Each structure stands twice: as C-alpha cells, then as structure tokens.
Amino acid sequence: MTMTLCIFCGALPGIRPAYRQAAERLGCLLAERQIAIVYGGGRVGLMGALADAALAAGGRVTGIIPRALFDRELGHNGVTELRIVGSMHERKAMMEELSDGFIALPGGFGTFEEIFEMITWLQLGVHGKPCALLNIEGYFDALAGFVEHASAEGFITSEDRDLLLVDDDPERLLDRVLAYRAPAATKWLALEQT
C-alpha cells in the first residue's frame, strides 16, 4: 500500500441505509485500490461498517482510539492495527501524521470538528493534504452552503473555500482526492513571513 487516507465518520449509523452503504462502498473501494485506511478505531456505526468492509476486501485498516473510548468496549479489535492513545487531541495528531489525505463521511460533532481542523491546517499551510466531504444523500448540503455563506460574508476567501472538495460519488471523490495538488503556499504563510 503506497497511500493512506484518513476517514472521519460517525460512531452512529444514521437513519438512512445509504450512509452505511456509502461507508461500505468506500471501504471496499480503498481496499481495491490498495489505499490503507486510518480511522477512529470504532467497531460501531459508520466507523465499524467502513472498517469491516475494507478488511473483508483485503484492505489495511489502522484504528486510533482514546483509552476512555476503548475501555467502553467501542474499540475494533479486528482491524489490522489498533493504536490506543491518551486523548482526542493525541488521536487527531496521529491521524494527521499517518495520513496522506482526509475524507469525511456523515457524522456528528466529532466528524465536523475533525475535518474542519484538517481544512484549517491546510489553509494555514501546516500540511498540504486534500480534505474532502463525501456528500451522501445531500448530508453535507447545509454545511457546504454555510461555507459558501461564510465566503460570501468575507470570512473565507474563495481560494480557501475551494480547498474543501465535495462530491456525492465515492469513486469520483476518490479520484479528485488522488489528483489533488496543494497550493504552493498560502497567504497566511506569506503574512507570517513579512
């Protein structure tokens, strides 16, 4: 496996079967393309569906889970590698370090926070890795609309708005993630150096 993508997604399954189906499809697709997965280490919800599908298709899956969540018996002991860390902050830092890009599936506050931290780090030039939303059944429509609103209101530049890739098709989104090339430098780094 030459590439690793971090997948952020819910520990709950959501109410629509399409969410689970998309998680399973993405897990299979990554395994088929020999792309390793880093994810939150859970055995439940979309996290479990993603991991199980990738493993069944011969994929490599690394879970990263804080001790407190593992102790609640939420950790997936069947993944290729399960790393238990001390905190949510440590989990996120390790996910970023081990990954070449990030895709968010439907999820809750944790998923939102994780993908937005990664897009912020991209904006600031901390990393140059692609950040994407897999917009199943229009799940992220309102969020993408809010990003457009923030841009229209002058809080996110159009260049920074375009850093976030959004697509409703797993294969097309994966192709866009694999083709992504980060901007050479951001204005934030330029401002820092003046």
Task: Give short descriptive properties of this protein.
48% helix, single chain, 9 helices, alpha/beta, 194 residues, seven-stranded parallel beta sheet
What this model shows, in words?
The chain has 194 residues and is α/β, with parallel strands linked by helices. 48% of the residues lie in helices and 17% in strands. The protein has helices at residues 17-32, 45-56, 67-71, 88-98, 109-124, 141-152, 158-161, 170-179, 187-193; strands spanning 3-8, 35-39, 61-66, 81-85, 102-104, 131-134, 164-167. It has a 7-stranded parallel sheet, with helices on both faces. 41% of the residues are buried.
Question: How would you sum up this structure in a few lines?
Answer:
This protein is α/β, with parallel strands linked by helices and 194 residues long. Helices cover 48% and strands 17% of the residues.
Topology:
Layout: E1 3-8, H1 17-32, E2 35-39, H2 45-56, E3 61-66, H3 67-71, E4 81-85, H4 88-98, E5 102-104, H5 109-124, E6 131-134, H6 141-152, H7 158-161, E7 164-167, H8 170-179, H9 187-193
Parallel strand pairs: 1-2, 1-5, 2-3, 3-4, 5-6, 6-7
Helix pairs in contact: 1-2
Shape, principal axes of CA atoms: globular
Instruction: Profile the largest sheet.
Output: 7 strands, parallel
Percent range for β-strand residues = 15-25%
Residue stretches low in confidence (pLDDT < 50, at least 5 long) are none
